[in-house]
Specification:
The structure is a single chain. By secondary structure, the protein is α+β, with helices and mostly antiparallel strands. The protein has four domains: about 220 residues, no CATH class; about 160 residues, no CATH class; about 230 residues, no CATH class; about 190 residues, no CATH class. About 55% of the residues lie in helices and about 15% in strands. The chain is built from 26 helices and 22 strands. The strands form two sheets. The protein has a six-stranded mixed β-barrel with strand order 2-3-9-6-8-7, surrounded by four helices. Strands 13-15-20-17-19-18 form a six-stranded mixed β-barrel. Helix 2 packs antiparallel against helix 22, helix 10 runs antiparallel to helix 17 and helix 10 runs parallel beside helix 22. The protein is elongated and about 100 Å long.
């Protein structure tokens, strides 16, 4: 008894191994392994990158924060928070940062540059290190060496760790400031009303953000010098950061208390950052890149699932006769099932390991393509991407490949004599639903973005139902419109080929459409969405924004613009105000579930007023009535976010002055217009008793048109010299910087496109060749009855072109709908796809199906008729 059991037990292990070896040598598993490896490689490459980046952020959290916990506010840190931290024995320092204009004096050329100014006090930094260089040449050499070694410029001996902060009257500046202004160590740097000596080159700042893209080069100054610059005005946008360090338990208690304190209604504009939260603005830089990469990876994985299902069914169909013979030889259904299950586990493991190796190599390329966004040396990956990769590969095979293969166990022995019995049946709905559910959950988890994962997985699941329904309708219409005697013979035979197997026609159209859907979606996203972002700026849009213009400077500033030939410009007053009540009810962030609404309520708004409605805004509700008292106009998006409507009464606190008004109009604002825009505006020409500054938006005149052409300085430099307190933002440079970042992201995405393209082509090949043997038998019969190879070739081309055109048309239509949803709700683009997309999709689908058919079915008509008929069912 024991011996018999051992023999049978060893039999299925042996059968599994021999079957694996035979199928691998014969190429039976090639399509399966390629499908699994592509899906695993696409997902794991993104997973490896995200895992290492998150680990790097966690590793550098203390340096990103500049302390163990940080209280951030848009006004001076509340005194009771500072007092509480000191009472707990925590050590703290305060820093102030804001963008402003730095300039060289006339002796050095008078150039100006937008910089990020940070004022620090003794004790800074609490965490991390300040690295500086005492020589411009040494700093440049250090950066060159750092770029080559990945050390960020801090590996040389001439780059030292600072043990203090800039002395009063001195500043430390980054290399970009010196190069832009043509300055050197010991030269004077003009900041507002002050002239400060440059004493060192700032090489590394601990709480800057771990080497991610910065908006402007940094200037570090002693906080005792800030008042003399006169840069901080009542309406200036300054960020105060109060960082603390201490024992972990004490810091945690302070963090919990400060978090609760920041949520009180009377404490506004305050938030707490901790090691766990990190610096959210640092993560936002790569957020869009992550979404693009996740989208492409998800599409590749979904296509791999379709390819696995199709190729596994074809694999099972080719093994029906083998399993019938095994049944004749006495092998039980259980052992046949175990043998093939083990074979698939081995195949899945090998393919997953290959995919993991490929994915790891691809993620290393991503790090190179994103150079500049990811400058720091990332730590090694954890085990989770490997677990995800193996889980994805095994799920692909077991959920989509194993169900049709397990049917081999139930093949009757009678099939050895009658090949018309024991055919594969359609997989039950419950089995498919279970596999789809498990795979969908895995994809959503791996995507690291629930909204994106649900939209892609749910969109594809819905698309399959649409494709199947439309394919059935197309077969039904084809059967009734193409009649004998009214159509050429090749079209009649093609129609019969499709209508004879309506269920498989639905499967084939659906599979082709899913593959084309992914390709169409990626092409549309790449060409339309990315291009719309890059080309969002109108040709004549303002490229300069000047803020912090004081009321006493207004007339002189406007005259300066006119003298320079600037005739078109936006000119608006800016008032900072905080929303404190809606319809007499106090407003706090906790009243809203939406995160954006919470942020809006918790911060100060830039408000403005004008008796005339902005020409670049559209009134979509209500009416703008000039000089209407106690009235206001609200931007459409913020009204939706905060649940505002016409007639609501809003109360703003404007530096201690409470102002209440009713919403009388709602405006639609095009934020890509590069014009001066505001969330809230009052339709009046004057507001008394509120502190204000002015903002100007204009297109800078070229040097040749300036009245003072003998002066080498640009108009920007002249403007800043005349008004040293203003901040002049060169949006052209900023947009170029953003587009450079986007270009790097697009390079990484386009490289990952190759996986999706390969997976899509595998789906097309699998869908077209899945009925190769059936086609061979049918064509053999027709050839035996006198049909020529030329006629059958036309029949095959007509069938493939028709199925491909239908699949391409449906895929393009669904891609437009799904792309619109992703553009609106995930990537936040304005997208208007071309109406020609469905026709282009139909033509592309027909061409790809014909190409796949030529490659996969080219031997069908070459087989001898006798050989094919001998193998046919009797």
């Amino acid at each position: 008894m024991s011996s018999t059991h051992t023999t049978h037990s060893g039999a299925w292990w042996s059968i599994a191994w021999r079957s694996l070896w035979r199928d691998a040598r014969a190429g039976e598993l090639r399509l399966l392994m390629v499908s699994v490896a592509l899906g695993v490689a696409a997902l794991s490459s993104v997973s490896f990158l995200a895992d290492r980046m998150n680990a790097g952020l966690q590793r550098d959290a203390g340096q990103l924060l500049g302390g163990d916990a940080v209280v951030v506010s848009d006004t001076p840190t509340p005194a009771h928070i500072v007092t509480y931290a000191r009472a707990m024995g925590l050590k703290g320092v305060t820093t102030l940062s804001f963008p402003t204009m730095a300039r060289a004096d006339q002796a050095q050329g008078g150039e100006s540059r937008l910089v990020a100014l940070k004022a620090v006090e003794t004790g800074y930094p609490l965490r991390g290190q300040l690295k500086v260089s005492a020589s411009l040449a040494q700093a440049q050499a250090a950066l060159v060496q750092g770029a080559a070694t990945g050390s960020g410029g801090g590996a040389r001996a001439d780059v030292v760790i600072a043990t203090d902060i800039p002395a009063p009257g001195e500043v430390w500046v980054e290399l970009g400031v010196l190069e832009a202004l043509g300055l050197n160590i010991q030269d004077r740097l003009m900041l507002g009303n002050s002239s400060l000596r440059i004493s060192r080159v700032l090489m590394q700042e601990p709480d800057r953000g771990a080497g991610f893209m910065s908006f402007a080069p940094r200037v570090l100054m002693n906080s005792t010098d800030l008042a003399a610059t006169a840069l901080v005005q009542p309406a200036s946008r300054v960020t105060w950061r109060y960082a603390v360090v201490g024992p972990a338990a004490v810091v945690q208690r302070f963090n919990d208390w400060a978090t609760l304190e920041s949520k009180k209604p009377e404490v506004r504009g305050v938030r707490v950052e901790s090691l766990e939260a990190g610096r959210p603005e640092m993560r936002q830089t790569l957020d869009r890149a992550g979404k693009f990469l996740n989208l492409v990876a998800l599409l590749a994985a979904l296509l791999s699932a379709v390819a696995v299902a199709l190729s596994a069914r074809a694999f099972a169909a080719r093994h029906l006769d083998d399993c019938a013979m095994l049944r004749v030889l006495g092998l039980s259904q259980k052992r046949i099932a175990l043998a093939y299950s083990l074979e698939f586990v081995w195949v899945g493991s090998v393919a997953s390991l290959l995919g993991l190796a490929l994915g790891y190599g691809v993620h290393l390329l991503f790090v190179q393509l994103l150079a500049g966004l990811v400058d720091t040396a990332l730590p090694g990956a954890s085990v989770w991407p490997v677990v995800y990769g193996l889980g994805t590969g095994l799920t692909l095979l077991l959920a989509f490949g194993l169900p049709p293969v397990l049917q081999l166990a139930s093949v009757p022995a009678l099939r050895v004599m009658r090949r018309d019995v024991g055919q594969l049946k359609a997989t039950t709905l419950s089995v498919w639903a279970l596999g789809l559910l498990g795979f969908g959950v895995l994809l959503v988890a791996v995507s690291r973005d629930v909204k994106l994962g649900l939209m892609v997985v749910g969109g594809f699941a819905g698309a399959v139902l649409v494709f199947a329904g439309m394919a059935w309708l197309a077969v039904w219409l084809l059967r009734r419109t193409v009649r004998e005697g009214t159509a050429p013979p090749w079209l009649m035979l093609a129609t019969r080929q499709i209508s004879a197997r309506p269920v498989y026609a639905m499967v084939q159209v659906s599979a082709l459409a899913v593959g084309l859907l992914a390709l169409a979606l990626l092409v549309l996203l790449r060409t339309d969405l990315v291009s719309s972002w890059r080309n969002a700026t109108p040709a004549d849009a303002p490229n300069r924004f000047v803020i912090n213009i004081q009321p006493t400077q207004a007339d002189e500033f406007l005259q300066t613009l006119r003298d320079a030939g600037v005739r078109q410009f936006d000119w608006y007053p800016m008032v900072r105000g905080r929303l404190v009540a809606i319809n007499q009810q106090g407003v706090v962030p906790e009243h809203y579930k939406d995160e954006r609404a919470q942020r809006l309520v918790d911060r100060e708004f830039n408000l403005s007023y004008s008796s005339r409605a902005p020409t670049h805004n559209t009134i979509v509700a209500g009416a703008w009535v000039p000089e209407e008292a106690n009235a206001m106009s609200v931007e459409e998006g913020i009204a939706k976010t905060l649940g505002l409507k016409l007639g609501d009464v809003l109360r703003f606190d404007m530096a201690g002055v409470l102002h209440e008004a009713r919403i009388t109009s709602i405006r639609r604002v095009d934020w890509t217009s590069m014009r001066a825009n505001f969330f809230v505006m009052y339709p009046v020409s004057r507001m008394a008793d509120v502190p204000l500054t002015y903002i100007a938006a204009f297109r800078a005149p070229p040097p040749a048109l300036l009245p003072d052409r003998s002066h080498s300085a640009s108009f920007d430099n002249q403007l800043v010299r005349r008004f040293p307190n203003v901040t002049n933002v060169d949006m052209g440079a900023t947009l170029n910087q953003v587009q450079q970042v986007l270009g790097q992201v697009v390079q990484a995405v386009e490289f990952l496109f190759l996986f999706t393209l390969a997976a899509g082509l595998v789906v097309l090949f699998a869908a077209v060749t899945a009925t190769r043997e059936e086609r061979a038998r049918e064509y053999a019969v027709l050839r035996a009855l006198g049909a020529s190879n030329h006629l059958l070739a036309r029949v095959q081309r007509a069938e493939l072109a028709g199925v491909g055109a239908l699949a391409g048309f449906l895929a393009a239509c669904v891609a437009m709908a799904l792309g619109w949803g992703l553009a609106r709700y995930t990537f936040e683009f304005n997208w208007n796809p071309s109406p020609w997309v469905p026709l282009i999709g139909a033509a592309t689908g027909a061409l790809l199906a014909l190409a796949a058919g030529w490659w996969g079915l080219r031997d069908v008509l070459r087989r001898p008729v006798v050989q094919t008929l001998r193998q046919a069912a009797v």
